[in-house]
Structure formats: structure tokens, C-alpha cells
Amino acid sequence: HPSDPSCPYVRMTSIMPGTVQDVWDFFDLENWETSLPKIDPYYDGLTIHGDYKHRGLEMKLARKKTKRLVTFGKRDFTFLSVSEHLRDEARVSGTVSVVSDQIPREKGYVRAYQDSMSYYEPMEDDAETGMPRMKLTMMCRLDLNDSRSGGDGGNVPMWIYVKTVGTTAMASVQNMKRQIKLLSEEKGNTARAEKPCRNNWWKKIRKITKQC
């Protein structure tokens, strides 16, 4: 962001294959163990330390770990994940870094920070393929150093983040699209395979099956 050059926000908008629910499920914290390694090679695990609900908001207190960043040490992020279902199938989610006695600093990790916001909007199916699609808008800001009292820095120059965050963010988005497209195609293939053989009763009898 031009008004905050030391640690800018990055905004990304992408038309994603699949429904809002497909993309929402992909980013659900409960599915991170299978989805995050496919788009983030440094992801190294997630633990959930609290689960709360308040006036339609769903909140989870969590800790994410990452592997070593080349010559830099391992990082961990402690954050509150907040999500809400809006009107017309639209949804919004976000994470905000927090300091909590439930998740103290752990030896061997630098406490990093990441704030994010994501908007999930439904769209009409693709006119050419007939496949479902949705619009995803994401905003995030990342600081890989720990500058709070008691922190041990981290030694990652901010200029490295500024120079690379756009490229790495778009690479992650492209990986997301590929993975969600595969999941959407698998879902569609499964649905077609399970469709009843309404018009081919002879084939149904010969195969002794309820499937086409």
C-alpha cells in the first residue's frame, strides 16, 4: 500500500472455479492439513486453541507453524479466525494476529504476524463450460519479524517482503485455482457417476446397479 511502504497490504481478486461453498471449504481451518500444503510449501501445521460463536460470527483461536525460510528460522503465527455468512450466499472471513496467554512463544520459532480478509461472492456459471464459479477477493499483510517486547527479531529485511510478496501471492492464487478446479471436477464426476439410470433400464438390469 503506498501509504504504508514499510509493511504494505496486498489485494488480490480472482475468478475461482467451483462454488462459494467449494472455496469456503478449501480455506476452512478444519481442512488446512490437506489444503494448505498444496499451495504453501512452508506450511508445517495448525493447532486450534479455542472455538467461539457470537451473534452469527464464528471465531477460532489458532496457531500456524511454518518451516525454515531458506536461511531464516521457523515461524509461527497466533491469530483469531473470524467468519460470517452474509446475504445471497456471500461470505466473509478474516484473521487478525493476537497475543494470548493460551499460546505463549515457543522455543525455536519466531512469532510472526499476518492479518487478512477474504470475500466470497457467488457468480453465474461459466457461459461456455457450464461449470460453477465464484469471485474471491483477498487482502493480507505479513510481518515475518517479532518486534514486540521479549521477541527475538527475525532478521528478515522488510524490503525482501515488499519485493516478493506480490509474486508469491499470485503464485499461491494460481495454485489455489488449480487445486479447487481439480476438486470441483472430481465432485462433478462423482455426481455424474451417482446419477440414476433413469432412461436406460435395460443397462441398469444387466449391470445390476443403480448407477449409469
Top keywords for this entry?
single chain; alpha+beta; seven-stranded mixed sheet; 4 helices
Which helices and strands appear, and what pairs or packs with what?
Elements: E1 10-17, H1 20-27, H2 32-39, E2 43-54, E3 57-66, E4 74-85, E5 91-97, E6 109-122, E7 133-143, H3 158-193, H4 201-207
Parallel strand pairs: 4-6
Antiparallel strand pairs: 1-7, 2-3, 3-4, 4-5, 5-6, 6-7
Can you count the helices? 4
The count of DSSP E runs of length 2 or more, i.e. the number of strands, is: 7
- Would you tell me the overall average pLDDT? 84
Helix content: 25-40%
Order of helices and strands: EHHEEEEEEHH
Q: The biggest beta sheet, please?
A: 7 strands, mixed
Distance between the termini: 54 Å
Strand content: 25-35%
Question: Which residue ranges are poorly predicted, with pLDDT under 50 across at least 5 consecutive positions?
Answer: none
Q: Based on helices, strands and strand pairing, what is the structural class?
A: alpha+beta
Describe the fold and architecture.
The protein starts with 9 loop residues before the first strand and ends in a 5-residue tail after the last helix. A hairpin with a 5-residue loop joins strand 4 and strand 5. Helix content is 28%, strand content 35%. The model has no long low-confidence stretch (mean pLDDT 84). The chain has 4 helices and 7 strands, in the order βααββββββαα. Strands 1, 2, 3, 4, 5, 6 and 7 form a 7-stranded mixed β-sheet that branches. The chain is of the alpha+beta class and 212 residues long.
